[in-house]
Every structure is written in C-alpha cells, then in structure tokens.
Amino acid sequence: MNLRRAWAISEKELRYLLRDPRSLGVTLLLPVVLLALFGYAINFDVKHIPLAVYDPDASPESRDLAQALTRTEYFRAAGTIGAPAEADAVLARGEAKVVLVIPAGFGRDIAAGRPVRIQTLVNGSDSLTASVALGYLEGMLGDWARRRAGEALPRQTRGAAIDPKVRIWYNEDLSSVKFITPGLAVFILMLLAALLTSQTIVREREQGTMEGLVASPVTAKEVLLGKLLPYVAIALADVALVAAAGRLLFHIPLRGGPLLLLALLLLYLLAALGLGLLISATARTQQGAYLVAFIGTLLPTLLLTGFIFPVSSMPKVLQAIVQLHPSTHFMVIARAMTLKGAGLAALWPRAVALAALAAAVLGLTAARFRKTL
Amino acid sequence: MSAPAIDVQRLTKRFGDFTAVDDVSFSVARGEVFGLLGPNGAGKSTTIRMLCGILGPTAGRGEVAGHDIVGEPEAVRARIGYMSQKFSLYLDLSVLENLEFYGGVYGLGRDRLGERIGWALEMAGLRERGDQLAAELPAGWRQRLALGCALLHEPEVVFLDEPTAGADPMSRRQFWEVIYELRGAGVTTLVSTHYMDEAERCDRLGFIFAGKLAALDRPDRLKQVREKGTLVEVECDRPAAAAAALQATAGFASARLHGAGIHVGLDEPAGAAAGVRSALEEAGFRVERAEVVGPTLEDVFVSLIEEMEASSGAAVR
Predict the structure, then answer these.
(1) The model's pTM
(2) What HEC string does chain A produce?
(3) What is the mean pLDDT of chain A?
(4) Contact at CB, A9 and B105, closer than 8 angstroms
(5) ipTM for the complex?
(6) CB pairs under 8 A between A and B
(7) Does residue B78 sit at the A interface (CB-CB below 8 Å)?
C-alpha cells in the first residue's frame, strides 16, 4: 500500500467534487431537507379523530361522557346526530370516524349503579386509525366508568380489580417522531453514501481514464482507499448536519456515548460507501450505476430493514436475508443509542455484524475491481 | 543492454470465438522505435494492452523491460509509459492537475514531480496553458499532454497506441520529434499507427493484419523484399475510370488508385510503362506520365493483405 499513490486518487476526486460546487451543495443539504420533510410528514400518531354522538338521553351523565372523550387531543367533537340511522351517513361522508351511541335512560341507570351498554361505531376501512381509536375508546370509557364508580361507591367495595400503572420508558410520550427520525437518518445516509460512490469507478471506465490507471503501478486497494477517503469526509459532514437537524427540529436526544456512535457510524458509512463502489465497479454505464444504487438502497432500507415495519414480524427467511443489509443493524443501533442510551454491552453483536459486512463489501469490491481492470 | 526491451513469443488473445491476436512473436531492442502497422481492428491495440498488463493473454508469453507481463505485472507497470487511444486524460481537470495526478499515481516525490512537470510542460509546449482544462485543449495539444503524462516517471519502454490519430501534420511532426528525442536517451518506443508516413519513420515495422503478424523488418527492407515485379505509376485524367478500365484489361488486373494516380503491378519489367500508357490511350484517356517506380509501404501493405486474403480463401474481413 503506497499512500502517496492513494492520496493522488483522493486529491483528484476532491478536485472533481470542488469543480462542481452546486452538486456538492446539493449533496450536503439534501439530507437535511429530506429529514425535515419526511420527519414532519411521516407521522403515525393518530390524533383528533372526529367523533359524532347520538344522545337521546341528554342527561348530565351522558353529556359528561361525551365531553370526557372530546376534551382530549385524541378525539374532537364532530356534532350530534338525531337518529341512529344517520350514523351510516356521517361515517360514509367522512364527517366522523367514530359514532358514539348512548342509549335512552343512560343517566338514570348510571345513577342507580346498573350496568349500561354503549354502542360505538368505528369506520374500519382505515384499519390503522380504527384500531388506535378502539384502543383509546376502551381505555377512556373504562376510566370514565371507574371514576363514576369511585364517586358513587365506598372505597372498599371496589374490590381487588387490577389497576395497572403503566409507565413508558425511552420515548415517554410515545411520539412517533422520535422513533421515525433516527431511522430516517439511517435511511438518508445509506441513500446518500451509495449514490456518492456509485459514479466514481464507472465514470473512469466510460471516459477511458481507467486504461491509464490500470497501466500505472497503482493497486486496486490504493484506488479504493483513495476513492473512499473524500466521500467518507463528505458523508461525515452530512452526518453532522443531519444530527443537528434532528436535535433542533425534532428534539431527538442522544443518550448513548457520542464516540461509540461515531465509531459505529463510520463502520456503517464504510459499508454503504462500499456498496456504492461495488455497484460502480460492476455497472457498465453511469446511469445504470445510479439507478441500481438508488433502487437497491432505497427500497430495502425503506421497507425491509425495520425502518417502518419491524423485522421481527417478517417471515423467517426474509429476516435472515435482511441481516445482510447494513441498514438492518444500524437501524437498531441508531434507535438504541439515541433513545435508550444503549452501550456496546448491548450492541456488540450489531457492531460485529456491521464490521463484517463492511469488510465483505470492500473485499468484494477490490476483487471485482481487479478483474475489470 | 543485450536483453531486448520487449520480447513476445507466440502471444495470442481470443475473445470467445474471435481471435484478436493470433500467435504473434517479435522482439524489440532497447532504444529502438518499433512500429505496429495495420488497419483498424487488426489487433494492434489488443497486443499493446497485453504488453501493458491491462489484458491477460490467452496463450503465449511476453517480457517487457526484463519482466514477465503475466507473472510480474507490477514490475512491468512501473517501467512503462502507456498512452491509450482515448488518451486517459481527465477532461474536467486542468493541464497541471492532470500531470500532478499521474505523477502521484506513479509515486513521484514532490521534488522530482515538480522537475518532471516542468519538463513535460516544456516538451508539450503547454507552459502557458497550465491552468486550462484538458477539455478545452485542441486535439494536438491534448495528445502531447497525454504523452507528457505517460512520460512523467521516465519509463524505460513507452507504448503509444495510435497517438496521432486525427492530429494535424504539424502536430504529428512535433510528436515524432519527441519520439526521436526519447530514442536518443535510450528509451524504447512501440507505436501503433495506420499512417504510412509514420510507419516509414520507425526503425522496424511489424505489419499486423487480422491478428497475424504478416511481415516484420526495416521499412526499406520491407519494400525491397516485396519488389518481385515492376510497379508502374500513372498520372492521367479521370483516374478512377482509368483504373477500372485497366482492371478490365488482360494483364493489368492489379491496377488500383494510388493518391491522385494509378499504380499497376506487372510481372514483365521490359516495356512495362509503355504498355500501360498505350493501353490507356487506346481506351481514350489522356496520360500525363507513366513510369516505373519503387513500391511505397502502402503498395507493400496492400499486396500483403491481398495475398493473405487469397491464401485464407474466404474473406477475412
């Protein structure tokens, strides 16, 4: 390994990058723009579900129940209906997603301590919202009933019912932004890194400069090292920008050790940049390389590596396959280190997997590169 | 100084069913300017690329600067300079940046690099244009820049693959001056070309056609050896029609256009020129001049190709 020769390659790549400041600017700013855009857009928190009420009882109790639901940020009042038959119409028109049907005599029965049946109609065509709404309804109706019972009955008669005190750790307010944003950063970095390096080898081949390189004493390893260095620097600059944006815009905490995160991040970047190089060493045209790098990193990272859909709920075969993708491992690391403050003791299997993948990708690229020379 | 700079034994390269280089053997002495002459697709580039260690040969062996091209490609690469047909220049980089890049890739130290870049700029006449992008250079300058890049590390053996293709005559002349300068310094040059005038400038010449080395000698000797008949050069009006008329006449079937005139090969030296003249005048052409001349390299080349195509039966190309 002759470092002078490797540096000559790096210097040349840097000059190419600096020759086109506009592309460089886009490269540096695009990840931040993407993070902001998707961070605000991708939101799984279901709030302000429109709820209509049919209340023939019109008692203080029934009004209290309806208000107890719509006072929260989970539901908003979407008016009242005059007949149960109108429920279909408001659900179909989308004016309400949930209709609460309170029976006549509700207030009287509650006051007398008799059991009451309440009907809730939920629009199930949007299954995600429907199941979230159901969860909210069950919990809130239960709360309301307990509160009522507590007021009406002496304390000791409440019996031995389990009264769970649930505490949520790590993401205390269950904000989906805090779950999504670290994954989004992982996704954006993969896309960026693979696209960055996907052009660099195939361009030399297309422009005929590869011949000059191959006839020179520079080795495949020196070329790869020389080509990696500038892009590692750019990717790290992007990491800093993305981290700052995550912190300022979405208040993502960093509870783990910053140095450990940086070290693992480097492994991840090497694997991702290496993937781009491998594509570049295999592709025939720059456009082909661009397309493969784009689709080959975008789709798996988006759909298969646990960014949105948990890996543990995938078929076993697919679970095994996605272990070969660096994003699968770094997705876990990024979330664990930002939200949970996990350390190497918990994450070392992921770190080892990441290192092995980076080494494999770069080794494969070196072999592939030598052959095409 | 006794070992040849390039020694090639039965070198062969096949791409699938296609044999690009077919059992080629030759050797080049140190300090010699060796030319590979042949039409496009004859196997010149493939031969050069194998000798530079870019392509692996299918069979045969080769030594460059005393090192085996298959066994010690690194040692070979450190001792050769290579200028490809596409020049291998980074068009988005400046003249200086290209030179600095190749200097770095060849591992030159800072001091030596500065000195060699100075030399290259001087040689290529690019001293005033150091900051100009390679893309903006005219073809002739770009070519000399590529040569400068290939010579930065002072290689023992230089491979130039059609270096002057598309260049104007002035640039080509300057280019050859550099090659002769290198020869003076003991550098070996292997140059491929399809220009006859350039082939004449080589110390020795290999004719390559359809992957085979058809002839190998000094340019003057090649012409002598091929001189088995008599060659008549004719200047007349309507040369294309005249050549066609001669071809249709018994005994003059070898007539063909040569420059603005016609060359006719004849077996009988006696009265050859007069015979051609009278045949043409009978056919109604006005003959300015008809005389016996020595063959040019082009005559030799064309007759070699005709011979090879005839002996291989089917059309080779």
Answers:
(1) 0.78
(2) CCHHHHHHHHHHHHHHHHHCHHHHHHHHHHHHHHHHHHHHHCCCCCCCEEEEEECCCCCHHHHHHHHHHHCCCCEEEEEECCCCCHHHHHHHHCCCCEEEECCCCHHHHHHHCCCCCCEEEECCCCHHHHHHHHHHHHHHHHHHHHHHHHHHCCHHHHCCCCCCCCCCCCCCCCCHHHHHHHHHHHHHHHHHHHHHHHCHHHHHHHHCHHHHHHCCCCCHHHHHHHHHHHHHHHHHHHHHHHHHHHHHHHCCCCCCCHHHHHHHHHHHHHHHHHHHHHHHHHCCCHHHHHHHHHHHHHHHHHHCCCCCCCHHHCCHHHHHHHCCCHHHHHHHHHHHHHHHCCCHHHHHHHHHHHHHHHHHHHHHHHHHHHHHC
(3) 87
(4) yes
(5) 0.78
(6) 81
(7) yes
